[in-house]
Amino acid sequence: MSGRSANEVRIVVSPYRICPLGAHIDHQGGTVSSMTINKGILLGFVPSSDCQVLLQSGQFKGEVMFSVDEEQLPRNATKLNNSGHVKGSSIEQEECSWGNYPRGAVYALQKTGNHLKQGIIGFICGEEGLDSSGLSSSAAVGVAYLLAFESANNLKITPTENIEYDRLIENEYLGLKNGILDQSAILLSSYGCLTCMDCKTKEHKLIRSPDLNGNLNVIEKQFKILLAFSGLKQALITNPGYNSRVSECREAANILLQASGNEGTEPVLSNVEPEVYEEHKSKLDASLLRRAEHYFSENRRVLKGLEAWASGDLEEFGKLISASGLSSIQNYESGCEPLIKLYEILVNAPGVFGARFSGAGFRGCCIAFVDADRASDAASLIRKEYNKVQPKLASQIDQEKMVLICDAGDCARVI
């Protein structure tokens, strides 16, 4: 694409993430856990030697072309895109599924005072079939573009700063009301560790787990990560379920804060003490009570899970993951029938320590931690049982890729 030699090409590796514990509480300032897997986004690029950006994708048609010195505006701020095309036109629709992410990255960098002089010529691709899987491919893509533009312009940006920049892409540019779990996991993870993040204070730590002999960095040899796909694909911003549940959490927080005389406090559940919740939860209607119950019980599960991981207790860690999955179904009400059936199959599969939805639970896949020696047997049973209960959806999935066996990964980086 660029006419340059191969040794000038830089590559961003931006992994997908999983969240073993801490489901649906990051946007409320809860404590979450995460790690990356050894699958994700690759973005090959060279600095373009001017302001122009030219991008192609391995998954999507068309080219993205714009200039980094153009002012980028959030998608709902103008009827014209930044190439002068009317939103909704055939050209705009060609880009809509992927062209907004590099534009959003430039928007985030511009808004935070970074002056970009160099565009990029690049080719991006992800793991086939994982772009709508609930593994935070959107955050991985956003992070990939941030790292590429920063590298091309010799910007020294910390991972913590990039967490905020990717939040700007998703919250402000794209209009998605999610928290910072996804980009934090992608930017902060380290191989062999569980990343723990307090989404209220933004503080994080990496927790290593010993084997039975007390040796660190060995636990990853004891388990594999299963990804089991439902066949459902639906973009998060087109489904009102995610944003409406965030609003319900805030409504519950507002009622509890008012009841305790703290009505001036930001209405997020992390600002509600557990004792206040227990004292005033009767003031919540049934739906809001379920949302709040998920938040407070999930926070407890995260803290117990961190202890289990630090002691090398995969059995206890797995039980907490499955309990998180059940609360997501019963209290957060984020599941749908195919994903719930898939979850039930996973928790009963041989060698599985624990399982839950990945992502928001309205589409995509389930994840499971499984005994490394029994991963293949578990994968075979999951394929067989899901074909029985969801034959139509299962028929739309490549049977070899219906269940993937993965390892833990590392953080996003330029190589």
UniProtKB/TrEMBL annotation:
GO terms for cellular component: cytosol. Residues 100-188 form the GHMP kinase N-terminal domain. Residues 309-387 form the GHMP kinase C-terminal domain. One of its GO terms (molecular function) is metal ion binding. Keywords: ATP-binding, Carbohydrate metabolism, Kinase, Magnesium, Metal-binding, Nucleotide-binding, Transferase. InterPro entries: GHMP_kinase_C_dom, GHMP_kinase_C_sf, GHMP_kinase_N_dom, Mevalonate/galactokinase, Ribosomal_Su5_D2-typ_SF, Ribsml_uS5_D2-typ_fold_subgr. The keyword Transport does not apply. It comes from the Eukaryota. The keyword Metal-binding applies. GO terms for biological process: galactose metabolic process. This is Galacturonic acid kinase. It comes from Perilla frutescens var. hirtella (Perilla citriodora).
